[in-house]
Amino acid sequence: MEILIRPDAAAVAQQAADILEDYVRAGKTLGLATGSTPNPTYQELIRRHREAGLSFAECKAFLLDEYWGLPREHEQSYYSTIRRELTSHIDIPDAEVHSPDGTNTDYRAAGEDYEQAITNAGGVDVQILGVGTNGHIGFNEPGSSLSSVTRIKTLHPQTVTDNARFFGGEEDVPRHVLTQGLGTIQRARHLLLLATGEGKAGAVAALAEGPLSAFCPGSVLQLHQHATVVVDDAAASKLRNSEYYRFADANKPA
């Protein structure tokens, strides 16, 4: 696992956009995450599209997850959210932005269909990830199988609380989501996890330096052959080996 520590959220976004730009220019398949953490990265990619001609026209995209029971058109569906935050501002074709079908009442079939769609596209080349305060990635809450595939999950109460700000209150937050599993995420060729703020420091330390455990789903990144974790100083504040990570980053081989 490569850990890159940057001074602040703006520098994290710049670093992440630098990594993603190479994949975009090659027309690769992107795994997109919603939430507040990747938004500065998306803003930087939009800027590069508008000001530097960065084209997404040859790319495909797959979302990590979707609320079960919300249609795509709902303002808080993750499909609508990613359109607001990124895809409607760049030149990726709408037909190439894919998400789990939250309206399919047969949630098992919905999961299987999404797995097949990712496979048919040749897999995800780079998957953007955030991490929850309880260590979840996607909506793989603590206790999720490390080899799980796209399926329905019940949200952890802490996640409901965290997401209430996007709805009218906790009572309006859906209790179920369709999410890529940890095994699905692991099949992406490059995992790019972003974390900013002191509130994420415990989760970052657990996923990077703690034991591999279903209690911290993000720790599954320890098994991946190409995982990059980009964090700001605040999110890195509980890493025991932070000085080494800084040293290794500054002394990469040419």
TrEMBL record:
<feature type="active site" description="For ring-opening step">
    <location>
        <position position="134"/>
    </location>
</feature>
<dbReference type="GO" id="GO:0005737">
    <property type="term" value="C:cytoplasm"/>
</dbReference>
<dbReference type="GO" id="GO:0004342">
    <property type="term" value="F:glucosamine-6-phosphate deaminase activity"/>
</dbReference>
<dbReference type="Pfam" id="PF01182">
    <property type="entry name" value="Glucosamine_iso"/>
</dbReference>
<keyword id="KW-0021">Allosteric enzyme</keyword>
<dbReference type="InterPro" id="IPR018321">
    <property type="entry name" value="Glucosamine6P_isomerase_CS"/>
</dbReference>
<dbReference type="InterPro" id="IPR037171">
    <property type="entry name" value="NagB/RpiA_transferase-like"/>
</dbReference>
<dbReference type="GO" id="GO:0019262">
    <property type="term" value="P:N-acetylneuraminate catabolic process"/>
</dbReference>
<feature type="site" description="Part of the allosteric site">
    <location>
        <position position="154"/>
    </location>
</feature>
<dbReference type="GO" id="GO:0006046">
    <property type="term" value="P:N-acetylglucosamine catabolic process"/>
</dbReference>
<keyword id="KW-0378">Hydrolase</keyword>
<feature type="site" description="Part of the allosteric site">
    <location>
        <position position="144"/>
    </location>
</feature>
<keyword id="KW-0413">Isomerase</keyword>
<dbReference type="GO" id="GO:0016853">
    <property type="term" value="F:isomerase activity"/>
</dbReference>
<keyword id="KW-0119">Carbohydrate metabolism</keyword>
<feature type="active site" description="For ring-opening step">
    <location>
        <position position="141"/>
    </location>
</feature>
<dbReference type="GO" id="GO:0006043">
    <property type="term" value="P:glucosamine catabolic process"/>
</dbReference>
<dbReference type="InterPro" id="IPR006148">
    <property type="entry name" value="Glc/Gal-6P_isomerase"/>
</dbReference>
<comment type="function">
    <text>Catalyzes the reversible isomerization-deamination of glucosamine 6-phosphate (GlcN6P) to form fructose 6-phosphate (Fru6P) and ammonium ion.</text>
</comment>
<feature type="site" description="Part of the allosteric site">
    <location>
        <position position="153"/>
    </location>
</feature>
<dbReference type="GO" id="GO:0042802">
    <property type="term" value="F:identical protein binding"/>
</dbReference>
<feature type="active site" description="Proton acceptor; for ring-opening step">
    <location>
        <position position="136"/>
    </location>
</feature>
<protein>
    <recommendedName>
        <fullName>Glucosamine-6-phosphate deaminase</fullName>
        <ecNumber>3.5.99.6</ecNumber>
    </recommendedName>
</protein>
<dbReference type="InterPro" id="IPR004547">
    <property type="entry name" value="Glucosamine6P_isomerase"/>
</dbReference>
<feature type="site" description="Part of the allosteric site">
    <location>
        <position position="151"/>
    </location>
</feature>
<dbReference type="GO" id="GO:0005975">
    <property type="term" value="P:carbohydrate metabolic process"/>
</dbReference>
<feature type="active site" description="Proton acceptor; for enolization step">
    <location>
        <position position="65"/>
    </location>
</feature>
<comment type="pathway">
    <text>Amino-sugar metabolism; N-acetylneuraminate degradation; D-fructose 6-phosphate from N-acetylneuraminate: step 5/5.</text>
</comment>
<comment type="similarity">
    <text>Belongs to the glucosamine/galactosamine-6-phosphate isomerase family. NagB subfamily.</text>
</comment>
